[in-house]
Amino acid sequence: MFLKYITTLKAFKSNNKLTRCFSQENFTTGSSKVRSPINTYYNHFMNLPLPNDKVFATYVWIDGSGINLRSKDRVLDQAPCDLSALPKWSFDGSSCGLAKGEDSDTMLIPAAIYKDPFRKNPHIIVLCETYLPDGNPTSTNYRSSCAKTLSEINNLEPWFGIEQEYTIFDNDLWPLGWPKGRGFAVINPLYSYCGNGEHIAGREIVECHARACSYSGVNYAGSNAEVMKSSWEYQIGPTLGIKAADDLWLSRYLLNRIAEHFGSIISYHPKPMGKCHPGIGCHHNFSTNKMRDKDGISVIQSFCKILCERHNEFIKNYGLGNGEENKKRLTGKFETAPYNSCIWGVADRGTAIKLKKSVVVEGKGFLEDRRPAGDCDPYRVSKMLAEICLQYNKLPC
């Protein structure tokens, strides 16, 4: 066997050609292995040249679960110049938890266009709103009401910055990099946050996601490893108006698609591994032009007080469904505030709403609402924050 190996090695060297390194089909990420198959046939077809009048458009929408994304493709004759050039479409709403079987033709209305990082230019991904046959928004179409609310405070120039945390699971439904056989990672990890090497898992997925988002037109701002091994965070914005929420949903779709290639699963559950391990949040940073102007700190402080006064209402909208799962995360531990109380403070990661020290020093800036769960709908959160400016006329947002 050894002689056969030497003979083969000499043959490779004599050909003086670049050869495929089969060892690179498997590469490690932290202490776990992720399989990355090299499929020659798939690559062949993906690289076939297409006619100039064939543009693939992937329509993406939120299904009845409120967190899962669905998609289907259609071929256009040309790349659309704007949303009005995109055709409306329909789908079986009953198979997505959005309609009844006897009246299931649910409409897809294009809302935002992104470049397709999988097929590349000129192909596109279309983020859609969903509507019932009677013309009303579906139960999980919160974008419709969010867009209306934000349009009413255009003069305030609302900025949103979103910090999305998530957990990467292996295909055995156990966190990537955790001991196999349902073994647990260290309860109080000291080196996973912003870590590297054996202290993290899944960086390949994170790197692919960063580039896919930036290519597509998502306002991707950065990423870091989180406290629990196999959990990560990426940031969107700050962005004006509804784009931050659009970008977050599209970035979730891209993350799920990329995970497919690595045989991994993405979870946004707020407490995926039980009470002894950190949770998964989706902090929302918010500001208006008044908050960003000189002496805006007074507006920010007034805003924080109102956020706490309406705490119970916000908690119900800050996670999937009525936010009950988020209460498992908001325990007062692992740098969270308890769900049954609300306090705001400066540079305190144990508060519900946090201000950076630089905001206090400069007397202007933004606030960070740390309550939203990893599986929250950013349209719901953005609308709740924007409504305060509408409902409280005395507050000069």
TrEMBL record:
PROSITE patterns documented for this protein: GLNA_1, GS_BETA_GRASP, GS_CATALYTIC
Superkingdom per UniProt: Eukaryota
Domain GS beta-grasp per the UniProt entry, residue ranges: 51-135
Enzyme Commission numbers on file: 6.3.1.2
TM stretches of this protein: none
One GO CC term, this protein: cytoplasm
Domain GS catalytic, residue spans: 142-397
Keywords noted in UniProt: ATP-binding, Cytoplasm, Ligase, Nucleotide-binding
GO biological process, one term: glutamine biosynthetic process
GO molecular function annotation: ATP binding; glutamine synthetase activity
Stretches assigned to coiled coil: none
Cellular localization per UniProt: Cytoplasm
InterPro entries assigned: Gln_synt_N (IPR008147), Gln_synt_N_sf (IPR036651), Gln_synth/guanido_kin_cat_dom (IPR014746), Gln_synth_cat_dom (IPR008146), Gln_synth_N_conserv_site (IPR027302), Glutamine_Synthetase (IPR050292)
Family under the similarity heading: Belongs to the glutamine synthetase family.
Protein's recorded name: glutamine synthetase
